[in-house]
Amino acid sequence: MMRWPFCAAAALTVAGAAQAAPPIDDYGKLPAVEQMNLSPDGDKITYIAAAGGARQVIVAKAGGGVLLSVGVGILKPRVVKWLGDDHILIVTSRTVATDRQGTSRERFEAAQSTVIDAATGKPMIVFGHEPRIVHATFNDYGHAFAGGREYGYFAGVPLAGSGTGFVSFDTQAAYLTKGHPSLYKVDLVTGHAEMVFGGSERLDTNWVVGSAGQVTAHSEYDEKTGQWALFADPADQVRVSEAVDPIHGVEVVGQGRDDATVLVERPADDGKGDWAYLEYPLSAEATGSPPFGASPIRDLLTNPDSGFLIGAVTDGDDPKTLLLDPALQAKFDKVSRLFAGETVTLVSATGDLSRMVVFTRGPGDSGTYFLADLAAGVVRAIGWAYPTILQGDVAESRIVSYRAADGQTLQGVLTLPPGRLPKGLPLVVLPHGGPQARDYLGFDWWAQAFASRGYAVLQPNFRGSDGFGKAFRDAGFGQWGRKMQTDISDGVAALAAQGIVDAKRACIVGGSYGGYAALAGVTVQQGLYRCAVSVGGVSDLTGMLAWDVTLYGERNARMRYERPYLGVTGPGDATLRAISPLQLAGRADAPILLIWGADDTVVPIDQSRDMRSALQHAGKTVEALELPHEDHWLSRQDSRFAMIEASVAFVEKYNPVK
């Protein structure tokens, strides 16, 4: 605990450096605490806690002391947040299979929402007692008081037929009546659900729920044509804005600064600028304005009582918390200045910011939550994401810039092993997934694990990555397995030219698209890496697109996302063979480790199984590890342990640290 004007960062100091690296499993642990949220009145805090692999949702006094602990069992907690001062929402997921309109079996990650009375612990499963609504939720739209009752607003899908829907994620003899969800208001005490806006077979609909529980706006997206429109009335007569959105990237995200405005993520109205958050008045053919100017935004901040927009956290390696009210900005800045040399972001706060939770990261900090009480003049640490990885064990990370062979300016994150000079180091290249994603400066558990064993780790943000503007993203179109791939190896060459790494002692490791890049690094490319590790990676691009068509049809948003990056019109394009590792298994010039989750619903598990068979048939060195009951995101701690132990051991075997 500290009081003004002491420096809060001093609380992070640990006497003495660690003598030995922590056990490798310490890096694979689920965060000990995450998603810390203050109740709107600031009196209580809720968060997800992990201990020994078990996960719980905790409600505690803001001043300390646990009030309630809710175990989630085998379900995977995704979201925990407050619905008013008296209820918390826990969103969990599980991999299930269901009939889609009675025609086919489809596996997907289903979400279940449970509302917990914060005083008694009494649970209410959203739609759990509604026999004609799927017992899964597809989004939530906040909460409000109406007619003396408190409601939560959730997207759900009505059922028809003789069955009773999902019960504990099991399918009965029922089928979905619509292809897209409807909006329901759900009594937070009784669980009774009432439809307030019907869904559609063809159009994907999103809603904005106002502070009094009224639907103030809704958007409609046509999956087949890519047409998007925003309306301010249920009859679709007041069209606020529209767009052609081939990859379903335009999205209404919630209220603006009041009930008369909404916030939309989309390119600027002139069609020339980068993607941004635009605030629209609810009038016909309105023009949106960016509340945060040209700043790219990572997270939005809202008033916990009204849901109105109050600020945002910028995107980038040095994120800033921007608040629309100068008085609120001054309060946050007062707290932020206590943490010299740290990156400080606002996580949760009361509406007036008299109490706030901030998250810090920086040198020697694997991620710490602090509670600031401005009235009492006290700031104190309340949670550590990785409490067993102490200050001296946190590897340094820095941004490195370089140029690709064609002159494209690129950057990435370089993590350096503690206690070793940055000269001639063995290297692990760790490309991100997506591919429209990016890596940030800060503590990354997988990169830190390799660094703890003596490796430099490069996380390249190749062309096509997110967060660098529309032009940089579009530069990746048609470059999957081509310049997006050579951007990665150009980063290795740049580090080697500086003498930081030894280019002859490099392995490539990644998950999802990064797993594809790892496989392509030793098949599409040659002579670059000593080994490759693919976790849930794509190996057969023709098969991947064919799988998408089978599940979603020829014209769907996922296909429209993948095809520009691949530079093809569909799975029949013969050019895919030249960039598909499965078709090039005989060219593999380094040992390969394949890891995948048996419950992966994003990348078909046959992508890994078939790659294993092709490598074995070609007489190549290959090892494989299937993780039972695991999804695409390594949500279970046992699976993370198994993955990190196997990947690190494999790299140490074929690219040992001298």
Task: Please explain how this structure is put together.
The structure is a single chain. The chain is built from ten helices and 37 strands. With 658 residues, the chain is of the alpha+beta class. Among the domains are: 77-201, no CATH class; 395-533 and 635-654, Rossmann fold. The strands form nine sheets. The protein has an eight-stranded mixed β-sheet, sandwiched between helices. A five-stranded antiparallel β-sheet has the order 1-29-28-27-26, covered by helices on one side. A four-stranded antiparallel β-sheet has the order 2-3-4-5, with no helix packed on it. Residues 1-18, 100-104 and 166-176 have low confidence and may be disordered.
Proportion of helical residues: 10-25%
Q: Supply the CATH superfamily name of the domain at 395-533 and 635-654.
A: Alpha/Beta hydrolase fold, catalytic domain
What is the spatial order of strands in the main beta sheet? 30-31-33-32-34-35-36-37
Tell the overall outline.
globular
* Classification by helices and strands: alpha+beta
Q: Per CATH, which architecture of the domain at 395-533 and 635-654? A: 3-Layer(aba) Sandwich
**What's the oligomerization state?**
single chain
Provide keyphrases for this structure:
658 residues; alpha+beta; five-stranded antiparallel beta sheet; 37 strands
Write the layout of secondary structure elements.
Layout: E1 2-3, H1 24-28, E2 33-38, E3 44-51, E4 54-61, E5 66-71, E6 76-83, E7 87-100, E8 104-117, E9 123-125, E10 139-146, E11 149-156, E12 159-160, E13 175-176, E14 182-187, E15 193-197, E16 203-209, E17 215-222, E18 227-231, E19 239-244, E20 251-255, E21 261-267, E22 275-281, E23 297-302, E24 309-314, E25 321-323, H2 326-336, E26 343-349, E27 355-362, E28 365-373, E29 378-384, E30 396-403, E31 409-416, E32 425-429, H3 445-452, E33 456-461, H4 470-474, H5 483-497, E34 501-511, H6 513-521, E35 532-535, H7 541-552, H8 557-566, E36 592-597, H9 606-617, E37 622-627, H10 637-654
Parallel strand pairs: 32-33, 32-34, 34-35, 35-36, 36-37
Antiparallel strand pairs: 1-29, 2-3, 3-4, 4-5, 6-7, 7-8, 8-9, 10-11, 11-14, 12-13, 14-15, 16-17, 17-18, 18-19, 20-21, 21-22, 23-24, 24-25, 26-27, 27-28, 28-29, 30-31, 31-33
